[in-house]
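To close the section, here is one more complete example, presented without commentary so you can practise reading it yourself. The ligand is iron/sulfur cluster.
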Amino acid sequence: MLKPRPMKAAKKLKETSAPAIPQVGFVSLGCAKALVDSERILTKLRAEGYGIAPQYQGADLVIVNTCGFLDSAREESLGAIGEALAENGKVVVTGCLGAEPEVIRERYPNVLAITGPQHYEAVMDAVHQALPPLHDPYVDLLPPGGIKLTPRHYAYLKISEGCNNRCSFCIIPSMRGDLVSRNVVDVMEEAEKLASAGVKELLVVSQDTSAYGVDVKYAGGSWRGEQYRTHVTDLARALGKLGIWVRLHYVYPYPHVRDLMPLMAEGSILPYLDIPFQHASPTVLKSMRRPANQEKTAAQIASWRAACRDITLRSTFIVGFPGETDADFEFLLDWLEEVQLDRVGCFKYEDVTGAAANALEGHVPQAVKEERYARFMQAQQKISAAKLQKKIGTLQQAMVDEVSADGIVARTKADAPEIDGIIAAPRKKGVRVGDIITLEVTDADAYDLYGVHA
Ligand code: SF4
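Output:
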């Protein structure tokens, strides 16, 4: 599922270019997949000799990478375009909302160009027209892994575009098209480059990671002298050979997910699965048209835990979906209690322009949505707090994300950056961002851990 990212990430980049170099500002909105698109565009810009301006005022042109998933995200994207126009005046729009140029043109007829998601070349064409590059590319000035918007020690690895599913609340397939998987060798070459550029953790993202390769009939390829299929288990096996943390996101509970368990149990990839269940009631799942919708999910979860004792399960849910009855919601709460997930996010259903679910009957009143959301979060908070209490006294390996005068902010293997919890610890001489350290857990609250150096 998408997570709005209001961060103007490129503003964090340092200004490194001489003043004569054409400067491009960049505003990156949307999910991790959109962030990967932003990184690719920034890499191309730098490869062609453009500078990246940290402020609107220093930019000769601004690119806005938009999100169009929820109506609130669309509004945020339109707001960002308006801000960039007001502050700078020369704006190129790309990303998910770019798939609906009429919506943007209606409000902002004077944007320079509008391109859809992953239209990297079209974005570059628009930049060339408005702001010709000074001279030939100087690719050797690029860092080996390209430009990263995430901190240098972790990076998102996008393995496919689009989606073959048709969930009734989602418009991603109409914006991004059907599943197009990257060949496993291509993905591994990028992963290797990132690892050699200093990345310590790879976050594998797509719309449906379990479906990876189905569109190319799991075509094979050779990497480091071994054969791998374009398939999630082969990819996980190959990534496990890089010797860095590998975390899988957006995995749907298809039967072959069990084949990932041995890789997690032996430590090749992190024992962590981000599985967007969205609901538990069979009736709601059916009207959501969810992939891998099956009644035996609880049994499946139990079998994963039996195969990999330390596995962390994260998921997201939607409450107040059209037609969700009190009984459906109680079913969801009971299921949550039964399966005891580690990390959970929850959204209150909202209509998305163009989604099939808008036409469903039984839209839930806002007050009921709010109440269900509060009850859901309360129930999960109790589960999360109890689970984290059990970690007190254990030793945990943790990836350092921040070091400041106040101490260290790190993450255990159970925590993905930005969406899960942290472990806070006192500062220690010599510890730097990206280090993996060992901490003893001394305290916990509902979401975070506190530790000391072991
Ligand atoms: S799996 Fe469903 S929610 Fe996810 S991108 Fe595909 S259609 Fe949308």
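Once you have examined the tokens, check your reading against these statements. The first helix runs from residue 32 to 47. Residues 163, 165-167, 170, 172-173, 207-208, 291 surround iron/sulfur cluster (CB under 6 Å).
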